[in-house]
Task: inverse folding
């Protein structure tokens, strides 16, 4: 047995069984440069999944490496929030300003799950209720509380949760009972559902709604613009708080906006973030209105939250995003990718939906007649793209959505090469099938 196969066996022996890996023969990434990674066996890939949207600038970014190295060389890797940490405060000030939430405050943690956990704690404390509204097909994390607001049961191992959640219709239009409606009628039907759920399934003291502007794990399900504005009008009638989970949609990835929720022209009470901010280094947080952020009275500490190394990486990453206007770049390259994927979809009947915004692009596979999800085809495309040198993601309620979310630095040439691989892989797999 080769070294690589042995490593896979060791993984299986020491990790819990549910910790699944991509690919029949899982990849060990050995190095990365820009938007490309090389595995331990020397195969090179264009990376259209960027970790899981974690490496938003790509790999080996000199500015980020230098910022971290400076911190390491200074010898200050303590990570206690008991002292002033200059770069943490500066990062918080920048994120507060970027949030466009008036007088915003920021609390740093280490992951998206923790960020949502903190936001849920604040909202439930503020409203003295643990009743939450979430969307069907949502994903908000793998912790005890966040699983309780995760509508995608495939990703929620426990039904025992500290929150009391009701789920409402999401913007996952393809499988919505309102799928054939116009945008306006679709939004109106979802708002009716929201009103109905609040009126008939809650005690009238809902604390908050938590929602992803574009559902990430749920297969990049994208509601029409204005969807959440209509929701918020209903929530405001009863003082229900709104938390936008920007873990996947933040930092300009959606192209037209810096935060996903801005496509809906509302200011949320809080936003949660993680993934891309540290370009691979663990950092997450909550940014919100002061009255939201100050709603917990007990002193609460995150030992590693906002530590000097993570905040140094995050600051350098954020500088890069704004200095290079990666939001506009995501818009431009995203449109190019979208058009390319649409052209491929026109030739392949098994592609039943292409959706997303900016550099978040979902391709749903299924039966063009009855829309039956084709999970097998998605798995085959995943393998076939890998064989040809492209890494993509998988997702959706049925695991039948190919997800593309490359680094925001993706060049047009890389987009073109990736599209060519995708077209070739999809054609080969579809030919095998028919
Ligand atoms: N929210 C969203 C929208 C996510 O996509 C994820 C991760 N996939 C999380 C929260 C949880 O983040 P983490 O894995 O960093 O805990």
Result:
């Amino acid at each position: 047995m080769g070294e690589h196969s042995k490593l896979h066996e060791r993984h299986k022996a020491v990790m819990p069984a549910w910790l699944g890996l991509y690919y029949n023969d899982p990849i060990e990434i050995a190095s990365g440069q820009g938007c490309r990674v090389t595995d331990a066996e020397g195969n090179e890939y264009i990376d259209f999944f960027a970790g899981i949207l974690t490496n938003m600038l790509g790999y080996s970014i000199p500015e980020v490496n230098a910022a971290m190295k400076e911190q390491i060389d200074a010898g200050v890797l303590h990570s206690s929030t008991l002292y002033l940490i200059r770069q943490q405060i500066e990062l918080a000030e920048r994120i507060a300003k970027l949030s466009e939430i008036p007088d915003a405050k920021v609390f740093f943690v280490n992951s998206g799950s923790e960020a949502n956990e903190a936001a849920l704690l604040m909202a439930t404390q503020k409203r003295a209720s643990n009743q939450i509204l979430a969307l069907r097909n949502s994903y908000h994390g793998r912790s005890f509380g966040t699983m309780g607001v995760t509508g995608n049961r495939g990703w929620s191992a426990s039904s025992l949760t500290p929150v009391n959640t009701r789920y409402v219709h999401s913007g996952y239009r393809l499988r919505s009972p309102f799928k054939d409606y116009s945008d306006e009628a679709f939004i109106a039907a979802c708002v009716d559902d929201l009103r109905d759920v609040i009126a008939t399934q809650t005690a009238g003291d809902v604390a908050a709604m938590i929602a992803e502007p574009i559902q990430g794990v749920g297969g990049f399900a994208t509601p029409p613009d204005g969807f959440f504005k209509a929701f918020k009008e209903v929530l405001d009638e009863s003082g229900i708080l709104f938390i936008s989970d920007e873990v996947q949609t933040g930092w300009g990835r959606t192209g037209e906006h810096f935060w996903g929720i801005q496509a809906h022209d509302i200011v949320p009470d809080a936003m949660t973030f993680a993934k891309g901010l540290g370009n691979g280094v663990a950092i997450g947080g909550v940014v919100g209105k002061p009255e939201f952020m100050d709603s917990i009275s007990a002193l609460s500490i995150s030992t590693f939250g906002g530590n000097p190394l993570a905040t140094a990486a995050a600051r350098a990453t954020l500088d890069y995003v704004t200095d290079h206007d990666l939001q506009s770049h995501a818009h431009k390259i995203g449109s190019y990718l979208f058009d390319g994927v649409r052209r491929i979809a026109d030739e392949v009947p098994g592609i039943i939906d292409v959706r997303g915004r900016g550099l978040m692009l979902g391709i749903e596979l299924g039966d063009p007649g009855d829309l039956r999800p084709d999970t097998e085809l998605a798995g085959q495309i995943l393998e076939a793209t890998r064989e040809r040198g492209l890494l993509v993601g998988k997702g959706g309620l049925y695991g039948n959505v190919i997800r593309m979310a490359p680094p925001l630095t993706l060049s047009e040439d890389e987009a073109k090469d990736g599209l060519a691989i995708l077209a070739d892989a999809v054609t080969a797999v579809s030919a095998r099938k028919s």
Remarks:
- The radius of gyration is 21 Å.
- The chain has two domains: 3-61+326-431, 63-324.
- The chain has a mean pLDDT of 95.
